[in-house]
Amino acid sequence: MAIYERQTPETSLMYRVVSGQWPRIVADYNAHGVTIPSYVSAEVERFLRCGILQYGFLLLRCPACDAERVIGFSCKTRGLCSRCGARRHEQAAIRLESEVWPQVGARQWVMTFPYQVRRFLASSESLMTAVIRMVNDEVSKFYIAHTPQLSECLSTAHAATGSMTFVHRFNSALERSPHLHVIFADGVWGRKDGKRHYFPFRPLTSDDVMQVLFALEKRLTRLLRKKGFIRGYGPDMEEEPQDMPDGPFQPRQPKAFRRDFKSPKWSEIDRDKMTILGHCNTTFRWLSLHAAVYVEPDDREGLMSLFRYVARSPICASRLSYVTPDDPERSMVRLRLKRRRYDGRQHLDFTQMEFVEHILSLVPRPWHNLIRYHGVFAPNHAWRDFIVPAHGRPRRVLSMDCDMLGKREEEECASAQGSGASGGHSRLQSSSRKQGAYWIPWGELLRRTLAMCPETCTCGTMMVIRDDVTDADEIAATMTRLGLCSTPPPLGRAAKSSSEVQYVFEDW
């Protein structure tokens, strides 16, 4: 028997901290009459079951040597689980690079906002949607207005751009800092002589970025004033008090993550003047726009790396550690920063409860898309079917587990129809929502993120899915037969070692 995970979920730092502090947080909030949003509680409960074999697993058997392997089910959450986040951003990168993005150059536009606006963006989904639309509209207007080849077209109405917006609610220090990563096709599509042509854009300059940022600042100020977030003009401008009961989860210790110093670099900048910080990197009135990252049309590997970066999850488990590893239950959590701060700090230390409360505020609300499509990449654009390379392709299968599950459902459907039972359709056929045409199986993502194939036995034979074990009695019986502990890890107390749940990683 073997387990695909190199490190068991319940012995990882994230799991130990969240499982140890979550019951205390719930009890403390209930005692003070504070309601935790249901989607946050649901995400935590799913995370605490991710990869834990005592809650269900997939049983595989090798037809050659009769070896067995169990694979725990994944939570597939969007905020807490770094393992599922890695597979999710890998899936997004594969999907976008191979089946959505055409053979054109890509440029990343990063838009960051002042801390006053970040609070509004984190609390209002309608404001976030309006800002995303505004940024894409302004950059698209710039591309169309400054592409000289479009003069040969009939009019600018026959021109279109394409972009994808990735919404980030965090920064490298796990601060709640909403900002936008917009990947634009570095050019314009236009209609000429009855045909569609792509006109690449000239090399971008810092003056171009300054022009776009100046227009964005004017429109953002007008938008905030229209929606009632600010009032007044000039020096008399001030924030309008906002009462947002439907806002996201608010941590009680936000000051633990604020900077307690003033950077000399930022203190020397005059915010009333447009300032160039680097190539295609400008700032104006605490707004910042960066557009220096460009990927050539034939650099598909670079495009994959860019998509992985913008689609990443907020938590990187490799940058987390205990301050005192000998006493993990009472130790503070240390977050290693990606780059040294201006005061020389390379890490942040905070208590476990502060850490858990803050990462819960980064959990996105359900039905909030973290990837938005605009222009020719939008699903309702008239030109999308002629530009997106995956149009008209047959569905591909990347992993044997998809074949096995499909054959299994066909056999179940045939047996049910042969026996005359009612409702003999498979789960996929009976569902009102069809399986995605370009869905990537989970086994393929495991191979890409773990650098190993969970379906290949040590003898080199492809293993066969024997059963998906979800019943409690069957889980206990199977794990007892395989020599594993059938008791799930405890909540409210961090697991001391892997021996507490008796996990092994060698083949039996």
Give an overview of the whole structure.
It is a single chain. This protein is α+β, with helices and mostly antiparallel strands and 508 residues long. The protein folds into two domains: 1-78 and 321-361 and 457-508, no CATH class; 103-242 and 262-315 and 362-386, no CATH class. Helices cover 33% and strands 18% of the residues. It has 14 helices and 19 strands. The chain has helices at residues 13-31, 38-47, 82-99, 115-123, 125-145, 206-226, 264-267, 300-310, 352-360, 384-387, 400-418, 427-430, 442-450, 472-481; strands at 2-3, 57-61, 68-72, 106-112, 159-160, 162-168, 179-185, 187-192, 195-200, 230-231, 238-239, 275-278, 281-284, 287-295, 320-322, 333-336, 347-350, 371-375, 464-469. The protein has a seven-stranded antiparallel sheet. Strands 1-3-2-19 form a four-stranded mixed sheet. Helix 5 (125-145) runs antiparallel to helix 6. The radius of gyration is 26 Å and the shape is globular. The relative contact order is 0.18. The model is unreliable at 1-7, 243-247, 253-264, 392-436 and 494-508 (pLDDT under 50).
Alpha plus pi helix count: 14
Q: Could you say which overall geometry the principal axes of the C-alpha atoms support?
A: globular
Mean pLDDT: 76
Tell me the Rg in angstroms. Answer: 26 Å
Main sheet, how many strands, which sense, barrel?
7 strands, antiparallel
Quaternary state, please? single chain
Report the count of strand segments. Answer: 19
Proportion of residues in β-strands? 15-25%
Helix and strand content put the structural class at alpha+beta
| Stretches with pLDDT under 50, minimum 5 residues | 1-7, 243-247, 253-264, 392-436, 494-508
Q: Biggest sheet: strands side by side, in what order?
A: 12-13-14-4-7-6-18
Distance between the termini: 5 Å
- The number of domains is 2
- The percentage helix is 25-40%
